[in-house]
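Box 3.1 A note on notation
Throughout this textbook, protein chains are presented in two layers. The first layer is the amino acid sequence; the second is a token string describing backbone geometry. Keep the layers aligned when reading.
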Amino acid sequence: MLKIFKIIAILEGISYLVLFSNMLFIKPTNFDLYKTLLFPIGMAHGLLFVGYIILALMLKFEDNWGMKKLGLVCAASVVPFGTFYMEKKYLRNV
């Protein structure tokens, strides 16, 4: 299950950055393209975010994570590049 969580973490981080890129770079130049891309990118990111949180909760009980580790892993999902850092620092050695 940890391998699946790592994959979801990377994909969630990528989708978060793509969502920000759409907002920061495409919206000012081409609003129609921005509106067209917003729903599929947002939906993908939302599903990956929910999957990330659910898998983190499942791993908390499966691998006996402490509340501090669970809190850090969940908080990393709302910070840009947070999931990449968390995967490298906390999950690489597991």
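The helical segments are 2-26, 31-62, 67-76, 82-91. The chain has one domain: 2-91.
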